[in-house]
């Protein structure tokens, strides 16, 4: 009797569905994956929070919004806020020193008396 070949089939690696990444790097403290986004589609709001430095951001969501959208919104918002901070508003009107008006010719009324 010969040996029977065992059919040892390797199970094909089933492709696991990787859940969408909802942990991101924080803009402020630069910790990796410290920022988490929670989407509440029922309420229509998203909460972004950094568990390290406690930065928070809130936005509205719709059925198409993903965590990454909230994250990029947050980046935009933080970017804009930072720009405003670094560029203080100056009055548009130029207040450059005007040359002093030339003195009016003195009407010398010399009375020779
Ligand atoms: Zn942070």
Can you describe what's shown?
It comes from Hypsizygus marmoreus (White beech mushroom). One of its GO terms (cellular component) is transcription elongation factor complex. Residues 80-113 are annotated as: Disordered. Belongs to the ELOF1 family. The protein has one helix at residues 67-86; strands at residues 23-24, 35-40, 45-50, 56-60. It starts with 22 loop residues before the first strand and ends in a 27-residue tail after the last helix. The longest helix is centred in the last third of the chain and has 20 residues, at 67-86. The mean pLDDT is 83. The chain has a domain at 23-85: N-terminal domain of TfIIb, CATH 2.20.25. With 113 residues, it is α+β, with helices and mostly antiparallel strands. β3 and β4 form a beta hairpin. Strands 1-2-3-4 form a four-stranded antiparallel sheet, with helices on one face.
**Separation, N- and C-terminal Cα atoms:** 155 Å
CATH topology of the domain at 23-85: N-terminal domain of TfIIb
Oligomer: single chain
The main sheet orders its strands as: 1-2-3-4
What percent strand? 15-25%
CATH class of the domain at 23-85 reads Mainly Beta
Number of strands: 4
General form: rod-shaped
Give me the Rg, rounded. 35 Å
Q: Could you estimate the helical fraction of the residues in percent?
A: 10-25%
CATH arch. level architecture of the domain at 23-85 = Single Sheet
User: Main β-sheet: number of strands, strand sense, barrel status?
Assistant: 4 strands, antiparallel
Bound molecules: zinc ion
Helix/strand structural class: alpha+beta
Total DSSP helices? 1
Low-confidence runs:
none
Order of helices and strands: EEEEH
Q: Mean of the pLDDT scores?
A: 83
Function: Transcription elongation factor implicated in the maintenance of proper chromatin structure in actively transcribed regions.
GO molecular function: RNA polymerase II complex binding; translation elongation factor activity; zinc ion binding
Biased composition (Low complexity): 90-106
Pfam families: Zn_ribbon_Elf1
